[in-house]
Amino acid sequence: MAIKRKIFEYIVLSFILLFYAVLLARPVNLATADLGRHIKTGEIFFKTLHIPSTNLFSYTYPDFPFVNHHWGSGVIFFIVHKFFGFVGLSWFFIIGSVITLFLFFHLAWKYASFRLAALISLLAIPVLVSRVEIRPEFLSNLFAGIFLWVLWNYQNGDISRKWLYALPIAELVWVNLHIYFFLGGAITLFFLIENLYGWLAKKNQEAPAKTKNLAIIMALLGVAVLINPAGFKGAIHPLLIYSNYGYRIFEEQSVWFIERLFSYPPAFYFKILFAVLCASWIFAFQKMLKRKVSFPLALFLLSVFFSYIAWTAIRNFSLFAYFALAISAINFQNIREKPNRSKKHENIITTFLIIIVLAVVLVVNKDFWAGESIGLGLAPGVEKSADFFKQQNLKGPIFNNYDIGSFLVYELYPREKVFVENRPEVYPASFFNDTYIPIQQDETKWKEGKNKYNFNVIYFWRNDLTPWGQQFLTARVQDPEWVTVYLDDYAIIFIRKNDLNKAIIDYTGSEGEEKID
User: Fold this and answer.
1) 447-461: per-residue pLDDT in tens?
2) Which phi and psi angles does 393 have, rounded to 5°?
3) Which of 92, 213, 389, 461 could be 404's S-S partner, Cβ–Cβ 3.0 to 4.6 Å?
4) Which of the pair, 512 or 287, is modelled with greater confidence?
5) Are the C-beta atoms of 225 and 171 separated by less than 8 Å?
6) Contact call for residues 54 and 229 (beta carbons, < 8 A)
């Protein structure tokens, strides 16, 4: 019977991981993704052995300094792309994300039950797949999972303190991959606080030794975060990055802010999972009071922390979902069937519950799943506009919008530099408020900018939904000084009526829309 149960559990686990993998397999919309810029940064590193620390991709502020906190991810993405292309990058992202889910699932399975791990995973997956772009943050999710796995197993005495020394090594890598490296220290600190409390309260005989061991690890983590190209500035950069942020980014907004603007389907599933997490803590508090069990302070602090950052910025939904999965299951761990109850039909009951939860997840909010395509590598036709630009030998300076900046960096640098790319921190905050947005809103500002920068090409993400972007595109379509020479589902290109562009204007004008895909 035990063997059959294990086989059943492995089959269900495989289904859950495969289900997650399929939902992560989305074609890459390179036109708005950050991925192109990351690949280009990695390419520059291998060609020059230099890590860019100024805004070299842009002609507006090429000398503006910044902390390159994710240069290592660019190196990894470049290597994967060089040998395996964009399909390889899709697989890299999917495999890394599936491993991350397994780490949190394993904790839920080991310290609670397989049934709880499976059911809560299905609730977590819709929240997890709200973030399917290939970004360095998926590596942060993986490292956060490693930290929690090691620390929770150590806290429960299932691994020795030697495992803790893997964490500073992991942190040394993490600090060069993504700005969320500070999570390693935060997760460790929460476990240190729990053991320190246990020590001072004299309730736990093992707490003094664990406190000292974790204090040593915290010190080593502090050393590890200093080993980055920017040194101390890089180590404290998470505290300072928003001090120069002149542009409002969708993913940085709170749930409340976004839901005031429109219905955001991922928030629906996030609230369900948040309710499950809250219910698990109600159960944990009751259990603590009735049975006099120790309070899992570290898990509580983790719950508060990841709930807060998820409510205040939707980019943190995936991190919240991973931690909510493990913590909720652990909190519910003492839910037991009646002692004399037969486990003969346990697999059937688990299967029935999984089907119900899966059906609810898929049916209750159909808008979330509507129109999503499955695929690996690039979205079909996404590079055609850049191919057109290069084939027709168009020349800058280019005026482009924020969204398409990284795409142009990938496709055109160093031949052409961009007006703006999608990293607010690499421009003065005043640039967005005084130049980028006013140029699109005010025709007088547009004329001033056109004369100052001598724009020859306008290259925009066609679906720019900002009020100023929509206003600007409408004005340029009606502007006799500019000609639309390319249009597809991703991009629109205008060129200026002048002698430099006469040949391409005659070429596209003679055959009209046939040259506009």
Assistant:
1) 999 989 999 999 999
2) 55, 45
3) 461
4) 287
5) yes
6) no
Upper half-sphere CA count for residue 471 (Cβ side, 13 Å): 11
Position 1 scores a pLDDT of: 58
String of DSSP letters for 371-437 = T----SSBPTTTTHHHHHHHHTT---PEEE-STTHHHHHHHHTTTS-BS--S-GGGS-HHHIIIIIH
For residues 334 and 337, what is the distance between their CA atoms, to the nearest angstrom?
Answer: 10
Residue 291 is which amino acid?
R
The rounded distance, in Å, linking the Cα atoms of 100 and 88 is 18
| pLDDT given at position 246 | 76
- Structure tokens given for 462: 């066609």
Beta bridge partners of 483: 495
Amino acid type, 23: L
Closest CA to 325 of 61, 102, 46, 52: 102
Give the gyration radius of the chain's Cα atoms: 26
Rounded Cα distance, 339 and 419, in Å: 69
Nearest to 460 by CA among 383, 402, 395, 387: 402
Cα–Cα dist 112/214, whole Å: 25
Place of tokens 């052995």: 49
Amino acid at 424: P
Q: Which position has the token pair 């993490």?
A: 174
Q: In what order do the strands lie in the sheet with 482-487?
A: 398-400, 457-461, 491-496, 482-487
Provide the 10 A C-beta neighbour count for residue 499: 6
Distances (CA, A) of 445 to 59, 75, 448: 19, 39, 5
User: Distance between CA atoms of 332 and 271, rounded to whole angstroms?
Assistant: 19
CB neighbour class for 346 (10 Å; exposed up to 12, middle 13-18, buried from 19):
middle
Confidence of residue 343 (pLDDT cuts 50, 70, 90): low
Q: DSSP label at 303? A: H
Whole-number Cα distances in Å, 499 to 101, 388, 451, 456, 510: 57, 19, 17, 11, 17
Examine the pLDDT at 369 and tell me if it is beyond 90: no
CA distance 436 to 430: 9
Tokens 């950052």 identify what position? 309
**pLDDT score at 517:** 44
207-213 own/partner pairs: CB under 8 Å, 24+ apart: 210/154, 210/155, 213/161, 213/164
First to last CA, the chain: 62
SS3 at position 455: coil
Q: What is the distance between the alpha carbons of residues 480 and 489, in angstroms, rounded to a whole number?
A: 24
Q: How far apart are CA 96 and CA 414, in angstroms?
A: 31
Report pLDDT for 510: 38
Angle at Cα 377 formed by Cα 14 and Cα 380, nearest 5°?
130
pLDDT for 337 equals: 44
Residue linked to tokens 């709170």: 254
Could you read off the pLDDT of 193-229 as tens digits, one per residue? Answer: 999 988 887 667 788 899 999 999 999 999 999 999 9
Q: What share of the chain is helix, strand, coil (3-state, %, to 5)?
A: 65, 5, 30
